[in-house]
Structures are given as C-alpha cells and as structure tokens.
Amino acid sequence: MGKTVQDYHTQPLLTAAVRDEFWERYIRLAQDVVIPYQYETLHDRVEGAELSHAIANFEIAAGRKTGEFHGFVFQDSDVAKWLEAAGYSLSIRRDAELERKADGIIELIAEAQQPDGYLNTYFTIKEPGKRWTNLNDCHELYCAGHFIEAAVAYAEATGKEKLLQIMCRMVEHIESVFGPGEGRLKGYDGHQEIELALLKLYRYTGEARYLELSQFFIDQRGQQPHFLQQEWEQRGQLSFWGGSRMEQLDLKYNQSHLPVREQTEAVGHAVRAVYMYTAMAELAALTGDEALHQACVRLWDNLADKQMYLTGGIGSTHAGEAFTFDYDLPNDTVYAETCASIGLIFFARRMLMLAPQARYADVMERALYNNVLGSMAQDGKHYFYVNPLEVWPQACSCNPGKHHVKAERQGWFGCACCPPNVARLLTSLNQYIYTVHSDVLYANLYIGSELETELGGTAVRIEQTSSFPWEGAVKLTVHPAEAAEFGVALRLPSWSTGMEIRVNGASLAAAENMENGYRVIRRVWSEGDIIEVMIPMEAHRVYAHPNLRADAHRTAIQRGPLVYCLEGADNAEPLSSIMLSRQGGFKEVFDEALPGGAVAVAAEGWRTEAGSWTGGLYGRERAPRKPVTVRAVPYYLWGNRGSGEMTVWVAESGV
Amino acid sequence: MGKTVQDYHTQPLLTAAVRDEFWERYIRLAQDVVIPYQYETLHDRVEGAELSHAIANFEIAAGRKTGEFHGFVFQDSDVAKWLEAAGYSLSIRRDAELERKADGIIELIAEAQQPDGYLNTYFTIKEPGKRWTNLNDCHELYCAGHFIEAAVAYAEATGKEKLLQIMCRMVEHIESVFGPGEGRLKGYDGHQEIELALLKLYRYTGEARYLELSQFFIDQRGQQPHFLQQEWEQRGQLSFWGGSRMEQLDLKYNQSHLPVREQTEAVGHAVRAVYMYTAMAELAALTGDEALHQACVRLWDNLADKQMYLTGGIGSTHAGEAFTFDYDLPNDTVYAETCASIGLIFFARRMLMLAPQARYADVMERALYNNVLGSMAQDGKHYFYVNPLEVWPQACSCNPGKHHVKAERQGWFGCACCPPNVARLLTSLNQYIYTVHSDVLYANLYIGSELETELGGTAVRIEQTSSFPWEGAVKLTVHPAEAAEFGVALRLPSWSTGMEIRVNGASLAAAENMENGYRVIRRVWSEGDIIEVMIPMEAHRVYAHPNLRADAHRTAIQRGPLVYCLEGADNAEPLSSIMLSRQGGFKEVFDEALPGGAVAVAAEGWRTEAGSWTGGLYGRERAPRKPVTVRAVPYYLWGNRGSGEMTVWVAESGV
Questions:
Q1: B555 to A318: CB separation less than 8 angstroms, yes or no
Q2: Nearest-CA neighbor of A134 among A184, A179, A173, A191?
Q3: I need a surface site. Which of A187, B32, B195, B213 has the fewest CB within 10 A?
Q4: Interface touch B325/A398, C-beta < 8 Å
C-alpha cells in the first residue's frame, strides 16, 4: 500500500551529549526542579499552585476513581509534555525514580485508553458522545500529538515501548476516522501538533503511513469546502469556549485560511503557526516536496525578517496570542509567548534540515538565549508566559492593555503550557547543536558537547568545548575511526564581524569557503585534529529596520548571542529618561554578583533629571540631561532581582 | 422646608454672543449640519447610518405605535442631547423650522411620560416592573439629567416651558423615590449626570429643592453601606449588560469607591468622572462648601497635572473608557474620548466659578481647540470617538490592541454620544468666554463676542474681537452705561511668554497686577474705552514631564492654543523616521489650501531613510539620516486629507 521508509529521504538527526557549563546548569534545573515540581503539580500536591487535575482526569477515565473532569479541554497534554521531558531527561541521565514515576503514569494512560484505541480524558469522562465533533476547539489530535512525542522520546531513552504501543493504537483509531477514504473526515485539528508528532513517529518506526497521515492533515488544511467552517456551521456556529455563538470563525487564527502551500505571511496564533511550519518543513525535507519547501521559506522570511522581536519572541498581540502584521512589534504590549519561541526553535531546526543556512540557526540561537532562557527564573520555579521587551510594572497592573504582561515571573499557570515546554526543550537541547547534509557536519550552536555520528563513511566523534555565551572561544576535536575526508561547517553568527579559525594551529582565511553563512572546512581528518574557532564577542549596538516604528531612534545592546537590557535594579527609574551616547564605548565586566554570574555592560549615556524639570505636566523647556553611566545586563536575567522597570531598546543621542 | 435660592450664592453666569470668524464657522456647522443630520438619524431616516430607534422608542412608549424597544438602555439621552443643542441653537438664531421640530418631539415626550411623572422609554416599554432596580447599569437618572439640561436650554432660548414642566414632574417623581426620608432609596446613578442637571434646574427655577436633591446624590455616592453594591448583591451579582454574573463590582468605574470628598485621584470611566466633578464644583460654588471645593481642587490637580494628554484628552485606556494612573499617557493605545474632553470643559468652567485661576481656563482652551475640535471632520458629519496622538492606520485595523482607535472619522456611532455632545458644546460656547467674581470680569477665552452684563453696579457691554487662533491680537471695547469702576482681567495663556496690553493706546506693564494668571485692570471705565491685547503667538516646542514615559526624548509643536501634529499627507511615512533638529527654527505660513485655511509650521529635521538601511530586521549600523523639512499642521485638522499616519510627539535630536 503506502510507501516504505526507504521511499523518503531520511536525513539522520544528530543528537549530541551536552557538556557545557552554562547550559548544563539549566538542563539540571529542568531535571532537578522543573520535572519533579511539575510531577507534583500534575498530581495536585503543590500547595498554593492552581489545581491541575490532569492526573486525576486520567484516574477517572481509567476507572480508578470517580469524579468530574476538570481543567482545560487540552489538560491531558500537560501529562504528555511531562512524559516527553522525562524521556529526554532519562536519555541524558538514567534515574530509576523518575523512570518509575513515568512508568506509573504510562500504566495509568494504558488504563484510560478506550477499547477502540481512543485516548482523551475530556471526551471519555465528560462528553463521550461528542468525540471528533469539534476539531476547531477541542484539541483531541493536539493531545494525541503530544503523547506521540512523549512516546517516541520515552522509547528512545529507555527502550520501553508501552506508551508507543498505546499511541500507535490511538493513531490507528485516528486513521479510521480521518483520511482520504470514503466516510472519513477530511478534517484536521484546530491546534496543530499532531502533524509534527506523526513525523517523529514515522522516523522512529519507519512506518510510512504515519508520514502520510501527517501529510494528509497538512494538505487538507485550508482546502475548500472548509472543514472547520462546515463543522462550525453544523454545530450552530457555537464555540466550545463558553458555548456562545460567534459572528464569524477566524480562520487565520489557526492558519486554515488558505491551503498551506499558498500561505505567505505568518498569521494567527503564533504557537499554532510555528508548530505547523515545523511539520511542513520536516515533511518537505522528508519528501523533497519543493512547493512545500518554498512555502516554508516564504513563511520563514516573513516571520524572521518582519515579525520577530530582537529577543526571538514572536506574536505581537495578546488577542489570540497572535501575529499582527509586518514591522508591528510593540515592546510593551507585546505577547512573545515562551511556547511560541520554543516552536520557532523547532521550526528553525527543521529549516536547517531542509537547507544548511546559518540564518536559520541565527534565529534559533536568538530565541534560545533570550526569549526562552529569559522566561524561566533562576530558581526554575517561576516563569514568564509573555516576554516583554519593555516593562513599567505599574502599567502592567493599572493599564488593562498591559494586564497580560507581568513584571514578575509567575509560579505556574492555569494554562501551564510554558514551563513543561521549557523543560522539554532544555532536556532535548542536544538535538539542536548539529545538522548534517551529505558528508558535511554543520555546527549550528556553539555548545560544549560530544557527538558520535558517521561522516564520509567513517564513524566520527566530535568533541566541542565552548566558552559561550561569555566568550567566543570554541574548540572542536575530531576523532574519526580512521582518517577520512568530510566537511565541517562552522556557523558565522549574524552578530559577529568575523571569526578566526585554526586547524591544528594553522590559521585559515576566514572569508574563504563561506557557504550560506558557514565556513566549510573540507579535508581529510585524522584522529585528534583540532579546530579552534575564535568569534570576537564584544558588546555592540543594534538598530531596527526603519519601518519598525516602535524602535525608531533607539538602540539595543547585544553581546554575542545575548541581547541586553536595562533594569531598574541597576539604573534609576524611569528608564525612559535614559539616552545612550551615540559615540560612547562600552565597558564589559564579568559580574559574579549577577545570578549565575554574567557579563554586565557599562555604557556612557545621559539622563533627564526629573528634579530639574520646571514645567507642570508639559512645559516649554526640556529638562537638562546629565551624563550617566548606564548599566545593561543580559535580557535573560531580567526580573531576577526584584520587580522594576526593564527595557531592551534605549534612546540614542545625536542626529 | 428647604432653603430658598437666596440662601445659596448664585453667581451670575455670563453668556456672550459669539462674533468670531473661526468659531462661527463651526457653530454654523453644528446648526446647519449636525443638528439637522442628527434629527434625521434619531428618526432613522439616514441611509447607511446605524439605526437609532430613539424617536421610535418614544412613539411606542407614547402609544402612538406598537413595537419593541431598541438601542442602548440610555438611548433616550440622544433625544435629550439633540433638544439641548436645538435649544442653544435657537438662543443664537431663531429658526421656526427647528423650533417646530423640537416642539414636536417635546409633544411626543409629554405623551410618553407616565401618569406618575416617570419618563424613560426602556422601562416603560421593556421592563415596566423594574424601574429603579438597577441604578448601577441602567442610566435612568442619567437620561433624566439630559432631559433636564435640554428643558432648561430650551426654556431659556424660547421661553417655552413645556419640557421643563415635564421634567419638573419627573424630578418630583424622583424625589418620591430617592432621598433622605424613610422608605426612599439612598441611591444614585451609575452614570453621573443628574447631579449637574439638577443644578441647572435650580439656577433656572430658583427652587432650592433641586440643588438639595443634587447634593443628596453627590453626598450619597460611595457611602457605606454601599448602595450600588447592595443593589448588585440583591439582583444576584448580575450585570445588566449581557446578564452575566460578575466576580466583582468595579466601584472605581463609576467613582463610587469612596465618598466624593475623600477622592484624590481621577479614576474610572472618564466621562462619568468629569460629569461628577462638574456637579461637585458647581455645588461647592453655590453652597460655599469648602471641603467639596478642596476635593475638586485635588481631583483637578491630579487630572490636569498627571493624567491629561497635551491635546486635552483624558482617559488612557479603552477598557472601561477610563483613567489609568499618573503619567500613563500612551499616545497610540489612548482613549481620550471626545465626550470626556467636553466634560473636562464643563468641569473647568465650574472651577472658574469657584476661583478665578487661569490654569482652569488653560485646560478648557487646550481641550476645546485640540481634542474636541479635532473630533469633528470639516464636513460636520464624521467624528472621532477616540482621539489618538499617534496613529499608524494599519495597526488600527491589524493590531487588536488598537482596534478602538480609528484612523478615519466615522459616520455616526451605535453609541452616538459624541456628535450631539460636540453640537451642544459648540452651540453653547458663548457660556465659556467670561466669568465674573465680584466686580471683576474674567476673560477666559479669546473669542470674538459681545457680552452684556453688570459690573460695579453698572450695565456694561463688552465687545471682543480676536484674531485667535492664528494671531494673538485681541481687542476689548468697553461700553458702560455710565462711567464706573470695575475690573477687567485678561488671561495670560500658559503657552504664552508674555503679553502686551494697551488701554486707550497707553501701554500697561504686563507683569503688574498679575493675579492667578490674569492681568487685572481695575479703573474707572468710560464709554468706548479700548483694551488692546497682543499675545505673541509663535510656534514653539513643548516637552513632557520626565515621568511621562511615552513622550520621553520627544517634543511637540504648539502655536498659541493649537497643538500641532505631523501627518503622512505632508511627510513621508513612517513618521517615526523623523527627528526634529534640536536647534532648528520654525517657519510659519498661513496655508489657504488646508481645510478652512490654517497656519502650517515648517521645521528643520532629519529623517532615517529606509532605502539606506543595510540590515535585515535588525542590524549593527544605523541607517544614515538626511536633513529634511518637516511640516506640521494643527492637530484639529488631522485626518481631513485622507488616511495616513499622524503623530503629535516627534523625536528630537541632540543630547
């Protein structure tokens, strides 16, 4: 019937082992704090935290106890994301206790699965007759997708395939409901996720039918007659949320306004968008579908060149957690949801599978070191859902237009999507460092690590040490099983002005053999060959495109991959009174006192003194400015030293 | 029983006849376009306009026809505001046709009045059993207040008291329901308005009971036990709007969070706030209630010194059409409702009754010449409800946080409060020019006019000619019935740097006898004495208080009372690319081509050229700036030359 795995192009996915002081601290935080803490919240055992009821829902669905379903219709996905993170964690470090907990939950899931393979506690407990009647709102395939991701991660880490079998049965059930065949629904989920998950299942199992089901969902989206529209009309134009009648279904919200190949702009709910683009890109990579590839490039270009914050945040509005339009990137009413940046990293990784272009890795790095890393407090227990680039705490509480922006990280959320998403990204960070095309290994992220793979027909081990993000010294030691010719491509980051490369001590001309932002070194490699890379990392100014109105006449500071910000903890408020000197230099000092230790930047600037102001609310004379030393710290650290103002973009003096 | 009119201080209200080229054009627009147009909309005879159904509701309540109530619960007030404007219009210019129309409506109102005096079509038609059960939401007293204002205006203009009698009967009914007596409600309206209206009724009739009922409503507000809170609990915590249960009643929304004398900050719905402050100030002026006076001063100071836009707009957020907090004045997510600025003008006029302080008149002038005047298109048929200081049209349509801001004036509104409010203000502008304290006449607005009053025991006629807003030449000719001593006080506007004054050709030292912002000239005046005032009117820069974060490092241009703005029609977009030169001068030219003719300002500046930008969305090099001549036009004219960007605040070069 279907094609086999051999019919598709299966690029190897490279998973390194992270050996990096900077990142291991965060990975351990995810392992030691986030995963155990979330396990407790899923079981409603954390005092003061909002009730999750996610495990309780499964216990009820499994018949272990009686009770009502509670939580969001997609509450199950929290359990899935935890299991996925647990899987990655176990792949890094075996942990009998964690494995026992995960096995226990998987046992529970097995009991909650229905005889026909169906798995979803909401529809099992609360609306058993209504399965698959509201794809637009009810996240059934979305939840299934997350369990598939968990199943693959857990199987890869532990070799245990119980959850995988559960999910294969669920997919079989899905295949009986959806698909091109007669009497099957020509539908797809309101919240994309199953598409990318099925591709993971395909890669793990080699079963082409999973790829093809993913392809069906992707191809079906936005086709006429419009499935979600028809479904909505059939249920009397009611929304699941509150059951109220809606004037109109917003098809852009879930990117079903057009067939995916015809889409050219990032629109709608940002997380849904990037989850979909991720699946599209991977599918294009697997199938060689050039039209799909080009659609991905168009969407990428729109997103990265016109709708992305400097921190790698995406989504300019709270309303619908959505993109708005080109160059509309307000810093203070921003959304920039943590999960959306994580999804952007997923998307970037798939684009790197399609084509080795450093610009994809640039965005991946930007989102990782700034928006995503900044979303988590240094204690691993507090999170930003929204990641603003400018905060005035009083406005967050007193101006309703900014109520969605929090000046302090929150404990956990009623819709707790971000913390487990951070956990699963950190514990799978080892998958984002390298990609391979033919016999060239591409180093996308400079993260200390150890990789074992095959290049040029030879088994190769690559050790990477990196002083990122504080210094730009990177060393790759190549250990081929035997001397062999292959390429090693080193990404020249977009923030750098050049890099020095030495192979076994001999300088290479950096400008040579630049291909799409990588310096490609092709040679015969022997045991112990050393590539030394030095990327100058100096604090520098960044400016925004003149059409980006919110950042006009402002500058930001960046150093290496890190975007910097000003905080009230270091600079007198209001921060808006500060102006950086156009000509002034920067002084960079590693400050142990900053959480975890970090390079702080001192800059020359000017500040308007409210004390010298002679007008009322308005006046004819500008208050005099006094020279001041401005202190900037990495954006990812903001809000770890009490509540106060923060800004990434700062006015700059001069014409 | 109650006190008589003699017991209260009844300051004369001075009504001049406007003889002013600039303003008469707008007054005629109100008379010739707005009032006739609104009459048609009230009768649902304007094609394409949203149905009003306001007259139809009265016809149904009057038993002239059958049908359902339609529109807002406060739909009646549109009829009242029209009648009030018609009254003012008739006081300026008799018009048999208009009077016939008004008499017809009054006849209809009489028929709709219930046997017990009650008047409100919503509760008469739709919920007859529910009168006075939801003061918080249902606007019964609010509507009554507007009809009282109409009744007084119409009686003053025409001598016809039919509507006045209707409303006196309604007030009698209200007195039977509300008041200190046993069994009466200790309540007040959710939307303030009746308070200020009853004081007008008191002034017209001399009946102290009307003042005392107003005083009851004002004093009762915010007292414990909390009337609106109790009422809300009694109806099951339901809101009238949609009937949904609310978590909490927002008492700040309608300024009932505290007794009025204890309030210190402008909070909540801005129109409600200023309508209440208006009544408080007038009541304090009438009763000499010093505690109330001080509360008004505190609220004024907070509002004018910390929560007012440069254009005289108030209300920083769409949510609840409300104030937010000190110095929070975002230019693009602004509310600054037209009606709120009109209410601010009402409030300012009452503050001028309490004390002759030029700062009250400064705000009145600011709101009048900018926010209010700008709300109306030059055709009199299109209006802004929200008056932004910065507009990017695409953001208004594509960013939901700005959907409430329109880049173009709209035809009419479902909630059509602003156009009739503009009409009634313009047609009663003659009441805002002068105030009197003892034997001193205070010129608050420089508007060509003719006033007849009594000063120093003598009948006096004062002719004013004014070249405002384009030039600062003002001439007052004094015609006392016989030579008499009294004072004439000339306001030194806050935007001016001084003024020259000549009396019968002889210069006065301008700095002498300055009292609270007025130059007071006390002397014996004889027939034909001439005061010439020259207030230099030059375009100049304005800066905002350093705490006003939205305007940091920016400047605005003002000339005389007019705030200026940049528009896409005159300057290449994005306007954010423009920076004014710190040192550059301004060139002022009267441009006949601008709607109605206006002084445009040319300024030296710099603009960032998007064409010279070498980065992607972000880059290391700032795009070069090129010198450019920037053109600014009066804010009130914005949006009359097609849709485009607009900004009041512009970046400024230099340290």
A1: no
A2: A191
A3: B32
A4: yes
CB-CB: which of B333, B497, B552 is closest to A651? B552
Of B305, B401, B625, the CB nearest to A401: B401
In which residue ranges of chain B is CATH 2.60.420 found?
437-534
Instruction: Please state, in angstroms and as integers, the Cα–Cα distance from residue A43 to each residue in A123, A382, A625, B255, following that order.
Output: 20, 19, 56, 44
d(CA A433, CA A618): 53
Which residues in B lie closer than 8 A to residue A542 (C-beta atoms)? Answer: 618-620
Question: Can you say whether residue A155 is alpha, beta or left, with left for phi > 0 and alpha for psi between -120 and 50 degrees?
Answer: alpha
Into which CATH architecture does domain A434-534 fall? Sandwich (2.60)
What confidence tier does B554 reach under pLDDT thresholds 50, 70, 90? Answer: very high
Write out the catalytic residue numbers of B: 321, 417
Are B319 and A398 an interchain contact pair (Cβ–Cβ within 8 Å)? no
Burial of A12 (0-12, 13-18, 19+ CB in 10 A): exposed
Q: How far is CA B572 from the centre of its chain?
A: 33
Record: contact B610-A547, CB cut-off 8 A: yes
**Residue A242 confidence (pLDDT) above 70:** no
In b/e form, how buried is each residue of B41-80, taking b as 16+ CB within 10 angstroms? bbbbebeebbebbbbbbbbbbbeeeeeebbbbbbbbbbbb
Q: Evaluate whether B623 touches B525 at the Cβ level (below 8 Å).
A: no
Return the number of other C-beta atoms located less than 10 Å from residue A306's C-beta: 20
Residue of A nearest to B580 (CA): A655
**Under DSSP, is residue B177 helix (H, G, I), strand (E, B) or coil?**
helix
Return the amino acid letter for A303: L
Residue A620: closest C-alpha in chain B: B542
* Least confident range of A32-36, A413-417, B63-67, B269-273: A413-417
Please write the tens of the pLDDT for every residue from A28-71: 999 999 999 999 999 999 887 778 899 999 999 999 999 999 99
- Does domain B437-534 fall under CATH 2.60.420? My reply is yes
Instruction: Give the pLDDT band (50/70/90) at residue A612.
Output: confident
Q: What is the DSSP letter of B372?
A: I
Phi, psi dihedral angles at A538 (to 5 degrees): -125, 145
Nearest CA in chain A to B645: A549
CB-closest option in B333, B398, B622 to A324: B398
**Residues 6+ positions from B170 with CB-CB distance below 8 Å:** B113, B117, B118, B119, B144, B147, B148
Q: What is the pLDDT of residue A414?
A: 57
Cα-Cα end-to-end distance for chain A:
68
DSSP symbols for A354-418: H---HHHHHHHHHIIIIIIHHHB-TTSS-B-SB--SEE-HHHHHH-GGGTTS-SS-BS--SS--H
Q: Answer yes or no: are the C-beta atoms of B436 and B442 closer than 8 Å.
A: yes
> If we measure between CA atoms, which residue out of A370, A419, A381, A385 comes closest to residue A637?
A370
Closest partner CB to B399 (pick from A324, A581, A652): A324
State the nearest Cα–Cα gap between A247 and chain B, in angstroms.
16
Please report residues of A whose CB lies closer than 8 A to that of B541.
Answer: 620, 622
Q: Which helix (H) or strand (E) holds B179?
A: none
A7: pLDDT strictly greater than 70: no
Q: ipTM of the assembly? A: 0.95
**Contact state of B400 with A606 under an 8 Å Cβ cutoff:** no
For residue B84, give how far its alpha carbon lies from the nearest alpha carbon of chain A (Å): 35
Domain with CATH 1.50.10 in chain B: 5-431
User: Where does CATH 2.60.40 sit in chain A?
Assistant: 434-534
Rounded Cα distance between B501 and B510, Å, is: 6
Q: Does domain A5-431 have CATH number 1.20.120?
A: no
Q: Would you state the structure tokens that stand for residue B605, as one six-digit string?
A: 């500046």
DSSP secondary structure code for residue A505 in this structure: T
Average pLDDT in the B92-98 region? 96
Beta carbons of A655 and B625 less than 8 Å apart: yes
